[in-house]
Specification:
By secondary structure, the chain is mainly α. The chain has a single domain (11-198, 210-405), classed as MFS general substrate transporter like domains (Growth Hormone, Chain: A), CATH 1.20.1250. The chain contains 16 helices and no strands. The protein is globular, with a radius of gyration of 20 Å.
Length: 409
Amino acid sequence: MKLEKFLIVNREFTFFLAARVLVTCGIKMVPVLLGWHLYELTGSKLSLGILGLSEVVPAILFALPAGVKVDTSDKRSLILNCLLGYLVVIVLFFLLTSSYLTSWFNVNSTVYLIYGLVALTGWIRAYYSPASSAIIAQLVSTEQLVKAATTNSMSWLAAAIAGPLIGGLLIGFLDVSGAFIIIGVLVIISILIFSFITPKLVTYNKGNTRTWESVKEGLHFVYNQKALLGSMGLDMFAVLFGGAIALLPVFAKDILFVGPQGFGVLMAATYLGNFIALLYFSVKPLEEKQGYKLLWSIAGFGVCIIIFAISENFILSFVALLFSGLFDGVSMIVRGTIFQLFVPDQMRGRVSSVNSIFINSSNELGQFESGLAASVMGTVPSVLFGGMMTIMFSAYAYFKVPALKKLEY
């Protein structure tokens, strides 16, 4: 097959993809490095949950005003500023984890400083994530939007797969602080590449409209798009309870005994499943009953999490996470397609911010829920509980949210 079937042949979109792949690869190494580092420092499952909470609180607090900022700003300049912010944080992570500075702080001080820097990344992400989604419509033609969204998702997932794998290997071959040097280099290169994109027009002028009024417009739009709202909500609750990512350091170290390299492989497994799903459906798109298939895929995700919870074999655990990513990929495709097809350009920043709240709630709050539940219930019972809750939410949506079950596009 021709490469053009999957890729957009466009100079600026190519720059965007290259820059985003590099920075995503680097950013996805960070949870691996910090998760392993924190668990070695503290031996606490709850500390892993708080790591996610540290990022999600500022990400949610700033998400809605960030959406207005995205719609009223040159998205290219905003993204560059976010990348510079990431670079500063990575340098601080390097200093904090280096052997020279580690001796300056006790364990508690180091942990609190890590949480503070993670909170800073949550603030940056509140702006970076919606800006990166919204700028695509300014880089390609309307006819190419759906293909561009798929290409962007596949590229992001490829980087999300590579990041944890590389992060795990770097812990083994270098150390945590040395790995942050590599991440810093990747972010610097991404900044240089992204700077080749020309400034973009501002598509929305709120004039005298107050920021909160603009925020309400975005919320009102999402509320009236029942299919979009339903898919966001279902995804949020599924990953909130069913996600096991926060506890992977515990499974890797104490249950599967595979070390940092195996931890990196497990971190990449779900993203690999996402990537395979996107690749498959780019050839054979979901052509009918998308909402019905979404509901069953969420239930399948829950089943995979239950299998992962009871597994004591590394291969079985990897396969369970891989298939959970395949099922999750269906949700990503449905939500992404709805966004690109039904959201007008002047609303993309605000709708992306609302979407990011759902995503942040599911991922990072899910990490906190996992860490807290594991501290109270134990590691395996907490993940089992999460998988069963995911299946229950899918069943509830099947019977109680008919608009989602009937969704077709």
